[in-house]
Amino acid sequence: MSTIWDIWVGAYAQQDEVGLTRLQLDSETGVLTEQAAFTGIENPSFITGNRSGQHLYAVSEVEEADGQPGGRMFTFELRDHGTALHAVRALPTLGEAPCFIMMDTDEKWLAVSNYNGSSVVLYPVSPDGIPAKASTRFRHSGSGPHPERQEKPHPHAAVFSPDGSYLFVPDLGMDKILSYAYHLERQEWAGHSAVSLAPGAGPRHLIFHQAGTTAFVVNELHSTITRFTYEEPGTLHKQETVSTLPASFDGESTAAEIVLSPDGRFVYASNRGDDSLAIFNLDEVTGELVSAGYVSSRGRNPRHFTLTPDGQWLLAANQDSNTVVLFRVDMDSGLPIFTGTVLPISKPVCILIRNKF
Predict the structure, then answer these.
(1) What is the rounded CA–CA span in Å between residue 306 and residue 296?
(2) What angle do CA 212, 226, 49 make, to 5 degrees?
(3) 355: pLDDT confidence band, cut at 50, 70 and 90?
(4) What integer pLDDT is reported at residue 354 of this predicted model?
(5) Would strands 72-79 and 68-69 be described as parallel, antiparallel, or unpaired?
(6) What is stated as this protein's family in its record (predicted)?
(7) Going by C-beta distance under 8 Å and a sequence separation of 6 or more, which residues neighbour residue 192?
């Protein structure tokens, strides 16, 4: 019996344009179909959901809302098996251009990064899945050598550690990953540590390996991936850095997303300019990243992509060609194979696989 994956796509859009699109993928046949499209939220550029599938959370990546500086974080209730969305709460992000949102594994916190607001905020989440107003905001200070992209801090993600006790924030403008710790006895978050990347690297997104002892960050401006060991709680130790670009590429390109295969054997990254997906093996002995090849994203500016939880399918959001492209993954080599399926979706920038039916 085939699995039906429920997929949500966030896009850059005006409030009266389609910003959220719901898709379904049949795992056996590879048939990808559009199920519903929704307006009413401006620039839902990053989305996440809770495990029950009852709620969808989205940032509205804007500079101001309702005449006030800063973006918004929306909570939607999914109704009628995902065919209807009901907005149950809209909260300020306390900073401009929120670009990332993540929920911890215990579903007690939502974290949002404000790219132009130089800050990260945390929202406590009640057992019914509804967040309260932000209880914590951390403001960053600093800059990097790139005159246009690193004139000030630009937090680009906010990633909880596997146990949920720490929050890691790659800051593209500062060339640092800052970490924050939750102190249970005081029931509050506080600054913990920081690790520096190469000057001008521009760390963007971060992922943890399932084993919990390794992390990877994709560096947007240098088009590289840096591996870290994570053996001391809350602290990353820098290891090797590898390029995400083919040696033959000569041009302008920036790295965007990083994804780990569900079996923990492969790391993927997207390149905007080369318009490719880079695939890496993890050395079984050293854990080091070893290049395994590159494939075209079959579109322009692959800002985001994701794998189905079984690792068999990869979906890429090509922002500038207005397409979501489906690949079948060769489970032995890890290489994505183009299926021929291309769905037209305007300015797609985030893909979430919410659950399965």
Answers:
(1) 15
(2) 50
(3) low
(4) 80
(5) unpaired
(6) Belongs to the cycloisomerase 2 family.
(7) 166, 179, 180, 181, 234, 235
